[in-house]
Write a structure and sequence with these properties.
single chain; 6-stranded antiparallel sheet; 38% helix
Amino acid sequence: MNQNRTNVKRALLVLAPLALALQACAYDPSGPASQRNDLRAARTAWERQGITSYRYTLYKVCGECPSESVAPARVEVRDGRTVSVTPVNPARPIRAEYFDEYDTIEDLFATVQGVIDHDPYRFSAVYDARRGYPLSYSVDYDRRMVDDEAGFTLTDFEVVR
């Protein structure tokens, strides 16, 4: 019995500092002003590219969303207009209307802007270094709520000629 207590104490001594370190990593001291500046710079970089026809794969994250709204989707845009939103895996159907806020790069920027404007508990975004489009964002709106987390990851971006 004493051996078990000793093992538990050792585990706590190792895990407690790790838990505190992870919690500190989640805190964003830069705040909304820096996030807005990053977004503005990324949007400017994107607009300078003048890209209006492209495709990408979108992976959405949502705490309590129906499965057809978070299945990976392939999005294609021509001349600034969405022409298709199709499931990556045909066996896992999607409903295109669940992707309305995510079906152009401009919509992705607007979604990220809206999240920042709500001043969430935790937020992070990553933008493509060369072209500026959003690669991902992650948000936890309220530290007291469960399953209010959301976000997306964009992969396989390509310009369509």
